[in-house]
Amino acid sequence: MKSIEATWQDVQQGLLTFTQVVNSCLTRIEESEHCNIYIEVYREEALAKAKKLDEKVSNGEALGSMLGGIVALKDNLCYTSHTVTAASAILKDFVSPYTATAVQHLLDEDAIIIGRVNCDEFAMGSATGFSVYGATLNPLDTSRAPGGSSGGSAAAVAAKTCHVALGSDTGGSIRQPASFCGTYGLKPTYGRISRHGLIAFASSFDQIGPFSHSIEDISRATQVMSSKPCAYDSTSIHRAWNTTKPNTNLRIASFSHLASAEYCNEDVQKNYHDTIEKMKACGMTVETKEFTLIDYMLSAYYILTTAEASSNLSRFDGMRYGHRSDKAENLEEVYTLSRSEGFGKEVKNRIMLGTFVLSSGHYDAYYEKAMRARHKVRSFFDAILEDFDAIALPTSPTTAFAQITKDADGVEQYNADIFTVVANLTGHPALSIPNGPGNDNLPTGFQLVGRMFEEQQLLDIAKEIKPL
Asked: What residues act catalytically?
């Protein structure tokens, strides 16, 4: 699928209309229906918006910055008068009364929202298998997972059903699916994009970000979503978009020891080291650095995120929000049965773990130690990025693994996040770049972590190292 700018050029030249573009995307959605990507398609709305944009073009009116780009939404982003469920039975048939700030900014700049896509329940998972709607399949190989939790978003781009798909990234939920599906995926700096209207998993980790096959579309969508301050999210930080100044000697810190047999399969190792050599050939200075804290990152991440999830999901109790059991005969049963019936296995696991680490007998032993580890790794990354323009490491240790279902044990998938959780712990922006195929002909990913609010720097580096 062409980029937003290339599509716009065709429309201006009379080679295409926006209505034709939308119809083409709708056809591809139908052709990829077996992958279970879309939960709901906004066919009539998308066509109506396309018709309005075609009329604007005919009348010589200027279009907004999104230029009629086709956008898919992860099923945890609110959109006024549309159903949003976070792929959970506990929010079955919930219709949002408002629109997420990020989504509204896209609409204001003439984006076309084409539908909502599948994800892991409450964004908890690494394969888009923990969903009340069933598993999503990887369009590149339907025996494999598209990654998670934003696997539906990655699959929507991989199947060429949209220009951009929005996901949320708590510990790699944009970057890991991008790696599995061969797309670009950006987790912006924490606070760059307002979380207002994003159904929370872990509030100090969650960040909305885009998938696309185009670096320019990633940049365009991120700039639009972060273009205005948000009065509804106290953690959002409005910063001007930093345009990278020409730099003939970019300095890259490489965590090359992570691309080894201890952590990665052979395909990921080879492609990572090949790209490092390509960076050197492009004139970048690459220095190897040791990241000795890596083995503590998953533990710190899962302790902190499950603690926050336990707190955030307490609102879904059958009284204030969500499903209420019709079997309850007293107040206690309203709470216990509603949550037991509404939440899936993986969400229950994480709520229980979060409640445990926050309990009075274990708070000091687990939660406080994890917070200290978070502070330590943030300081470590800040120190490296004072001297380097970006940090390079793999995105995922493997290519796409076999699909799992909502009844499977998710613990075996947690290691898929080992290289991605760090940027959520620290808040730094991180970009996954397609990095060539493995021996199974499935994509691998190359990850760059950058300075706070310097997303464009990462995108500029990505332009220099196009996919192998």
From this structure: 74, 149, 173
